Amino acid sequence: MGTDDALDTTRLPRVVLDESEMADAVDDPEAAGAVWRLEPSDRELDANLIALPAGDGIAEHAGADVDVLIHVIAGSGTLRTAAGEIALTPGQIVHLPRRARRAILAGHEGLRYLSVHRRKETKPLMPAVPQ
């Protein structure tokens, strides 16, 4: 197989989002949930821009079986962990170890962060029907 053949079957690097394109989601105080996510579905990486309005949050839970990096884009908040609280401010990159207990609470400005982790294995809700 020649070099040109390898390029035909290999996905190429590309820009998936420019920060200027997410200004509306970052500035909108009413935006909530995953306001952007990495596509397409045949990737090995998950990335989501999460928007939490002021005072909203993600209840305490044990994380999935993947490590997660979050990059705080805008606003402020608090990350509650088994060891205490971590103040979240723009520019921080925080490592959330797999299965670690955590909760996130948005501050008075809301909170916007990019979450990146290895794609979680998911099982279909219903078994496939043989045809």
Rg, Å, rounded: 18 Å
Ends apart, CA distance between termini:
36 Å
Mean pLDDT: 80
Please provide the count of β strands: 7
Helical content band: under 10%
- Our count of helices gives 2
Q: What would you call the structural class?
A: mainly beta
Percent strand: over 45%
The major sheet is characterized as:
7 strands, antiparallel
The global form is globular
- What is the helix/strand order? HHEEEEEEE
- Indicate the low-confidence ranges by residue numbers: none
Outline the fold blueprint.
Blueprint: H1 3-9, H2 23-27, E1 33-37, E2 45-52, E3 57-62, E4 68-81, E5 84-88, E6 93-96, E7 101-118
Antiparallel strand pairs: 1-2, 2-7, 3-7, 4-5, 4-6, 4-7
Walk me through what this model shows:
The chain is mainly beta and 131 residues long. It has helices at 3-9, 23-27; strands at 33-37, 45-52, 57-62, 68-81, 84-88, 93-96, 101-118. Strands 1, 2, 3, 4, 5, 6 and 7 form a 7-stranded antiparallel β-sheet that branches. The termini are far apart. The mean pLDDT is 80.
Provide tags for this entry.
mainly beta; 131 residues; seven-stranded antiparallel sheet; 2 helices
In a few lines, what is going on in this structure?
This protein has helices at 3-9, 23-27; strands at 33-37, 45-52, 57-62, 68-81, 84-88, 93-96, 101-118. It is mainly beta.
